[in-house]
Write a structure and sequence with these properties.
It is a single chain. This protein is mainly beta. It folds into three domains: about 190 residues, no CATH class; about 70 residues, Thrombin, subunit H, CATH 2.40.10; about 120 residues, Alpha-Beta Plaits, CATH 3.30.70. The chain has five helices and 26 strands. The strands form eight sheets. Strands 1, 14, 24, 25 and 26 form a five-stranded mixed beta sheet that branches. A hairpin with a 4-residue loop joins strand 19 and strand 20.
Length: about 400
C-alpha cells in the first residue's frame, strides 16, 4: 500500500486551539484542581502544566464547572496557581484537534513522540515495533489523516531523487518547438474540423462516464485560421467531462492536447480539414527530474492524486475526480522535501515471520524546513522531525518483540 502525507509549515503536533492560562487551586496528593477561574479553551486530553502539577499531566475530566480531574496527583497545596494548557496535542486520541497540516508521530501505545522524549521512549520500550503518523486536515468532521502502522522492523528511510511524471501531450500541427505543420486547406464555410481524444489508460471503462471526447466544429463564413483554432479549443475545453485540455500554438500554427493527469495514456485523432495535420505524441518528454529530495507543488499534487485511495490508488478508477470531491493538501506554489519510508509487512508463521508485502509512505514537508519560503511561517521544524525519525528507526530499533 502506498500513502503520501502532505505537511504544512505548522509547528509539530500543534493543536487548533491556542494555549490558555486560567488559575486554580492545587491540593497535595489530590488529582483535582479546584476554584478554576475558567474552563474555556480546555478539553479532555489536554496536557497542562503549573506549580505542583507533575510533568506529563493531562486533563481526565471536568467534574464541575470550576474543577478539573488530572491524570496525576498534585505535589503541593497552593491557591491561585497559573494552569497552562499545552499548544500540542497529548496523544492519538486528540488527533481531531491537530491543526491543518500539523504533523505528529505516535507509538502503538499512544505516546506522542517529540525530539525531547524519543530517545527515552525507545530506550525504555525497545519492543515497541510500530508507530503511526498523523497529519491534521483542518476538517471539523474527519480531523486528521492517520497512516497505516509503520513497522520499525526492516525499515528504510531516505531522501530520494524524485522524477515526477507529467501529463501526456499530443500536438496537432506544429509543436512548441517549431516541428510539424497544420496543413490547413483554404477555409470554406460549412467544412468540418474534428478532434477525438480517448483516455486509454489501463483500467478505464466507458460507463457510466465516457472516457472519449468528440469535438466537431463547422467553419463559418469569413473564418480565419486564428478564429478557427480558437473556436475549436474553446468548444472542446467547455466539456466538463473532458479527458484532456486543448491550447493553441502560436495562434495559427497548431493545437496541443494535454491529458488530465500524469501517468495516463490517450489516443488523439484529427479529421475533416485537420486530416493532413502532422501529429506528434509526447512531444515534451515523459518526465521532469527534480533536485534530490525535492518536489514542486505540482509534482507533489500528482503524487497525492496517484497515492490517495480516495482517488482510486493504483487501480485507476474511471474518472475518480467525478466520484470524489476531496480537498487536496499540497500547495502548487510551494516546494517540498520528500522523505521516503519503506518497510516490510510480516505475517505470522509457526517457525519464523515471513514478509508478506512491502509498504511505503512518502512524507512531503514544506521547504521552509530546508531554507526556502514556507506556506505560513508558523514553525515546522525539520530538524526536530528528523530527530524523532532517527530515534524511531535508528540505533534503538529492534527486529523482534521481547520474548519472540
Amino acid at each position: 500500500m502506498n500513502e503520501i502525507l502532505i505537511l504544512k509549515d505548522v509547528a509539530y503536533a500543534k493543536k487548533i486551539r491556542p494555549a490558555v492560562t486560567p488559575t486554580g487551586d492545587t491540593t497535595n496528593t489530590s488529582p483535582t484542581l479546584t476554584n478554576m477561574s475558567s474552563l474555556s479553551g480546555l478539553a479532555i486530553g489536554d496536557a497542562i502544566s503549573g506549580a505542583g502539577i507533575p510533568a506529563g499531566t493531562v486533563i481526565l475530566a471536568f467534574p464541575t464547572a470550576t474543577s478539573i480531574t488530572m491524570s496525576a496527583n498534585a505535589t503541593a497545596t497552593a491557591a491561585g496557581i497559573t494552569v497552562t494548557s499545552s499548544t500540542l496535542i497529548s496523544g492519538i486520541d486528540q488527533i481531531d484537534q491537530l491543526d491543518a497540516g500539523a504533523f505528529a508521530v505516535f507509538t502503538d501505545n499512544n505516546v506522542l513522540l517529540t525530539a525531547a522524549n524519543a530517545n527515552t521512549v525507545f530506550t525504555t520500550l525497545p519492543d515497541k515495533k510500530e508507530i503511526y503518523f498523523a497529519v491534521g486536515l483542518g476538517d471539523a468532521v474527519i480531523g486528521a489523516k492517520v497512516s497505516q502502522k509503520v513497522n520499525r522492523q526492516d525499515i528504510d528511510i531516505y531522501r530520494a531523487n524524485y522524477v515526477a511524471p507529467v501529463a501526456p501531450v499530443t500536438f496537432i500541427g506544429q509543436d512548441s518547438g517549431g516541428t510539424g505543420a497544420l496543413n490547413l486547406p483554404a477555409l470554406v464555410a460549412g467544412d468540418e474540423a474534428i478532434i477525438r481524444v480517448e483516455d486509454t489508460s489501463a483500467g478505464t471503462f466507458p460507463a457510466p462516464f465516457s472516457s472519449k471526447n468528440y469535438c466537431s466544429y463547422v467553419v463559418k463564413p469569413g473564418e480565419t485560421a486564428t478564429t478557427l483554432l480558437a473556436a475549436i479549443v474553446a468548444k472542446f475545453n467547455a466539456n466538463p467531462d473532458k479527458v484532456a485540455t486543448l491550447a493553441v500554438i502560436g495562434t495559427t500554427l497548431g493545437i496541443s492536447v494535454t491529458g488530465n493527469t500524469a501517468g495516463m495514456t490517450m489516443a488523439v485523432s484529427a479529421d475533416g480539414i485537420l486530416n493532413n495535420a502532422t501529429k506528434e505524441e509526447n512531444g515534451v518528454g515523459a518526465s521532469v527530474a527534480s533536485v534530490i529530495g525535492n518536489g514542486t507543488g505540482a509534482q507533489v499534487l500528482e503524487l497525492e492524486l496517484d497515492y490517495d485511495t480516495e482517488e482510486g490508488d493504483t487501480n485507476r478508477v474511471m474518472q475518480p475526480s467525478v466520484w470524489w470531491k476531496v480537498n487536496k493538501q499540497s500547495v502548487a506554489v510551494t516546494k517540498y522535501d520528500l522523505l521516503n519510508i519503506h518497510w516490510g509487512q510480516y505475517k505470522a508463521d509457526p517457525i519464523t515471520s515471513q514478509k508478506a508485502s512491502n509498504q511505503q509512505i512518502i512524507i512531503a514537508s514544506p521547504d521552509t524546513a530546508i531554507g526556502g519560503s514556507g506556506v505560513d511561517g508558523s514553525g515546522f521544524n525539520l530538524t526536530d522531525f528528523l530527530t524523532v525519525l532517527s530515534e524511531a528507526f535508528g540505533a534503538n530499533r529492534v527486529n523482534a518483540e521481547t520474548g519472540s
